[in-house]
Amino acid sequence: MNQQIDDNLRRVYSDASSEPVPERFTKLLEQLRQQEQGARAEDQDEDHRAASGDDDH
User: Fold this and answer.
1) Cystine design at 49: which of 10, 17, 42, 54 (Cβ 3.0–4.6 Å)?
2) Residues 6+ apart with CB under 8 A from 55
3) How far apart are CA 19 and CA 17, in angstroms?
4) What confidence category does residue 11 fall into, taking pLDDT thresholds of 50, 70 and 90?
5) Cα–Cα nearest to 9, from 57, 1, 49
């Protein structure tokens, strides 16, 4: 019985992993990457201002 369950789970996950990622998910991932890059750029700007003594925060 356990072997049958294992085989069925492997088949289901194998099928799902070979399907293409829906476009809405790829768009969401791209938006998250852009936000992350923007946050990193802001952090670097703040670090630079703090190091040069120009920090107005």
Assistant:
1) 54
2) 46, 49
3) 6
4) confident
5) 1
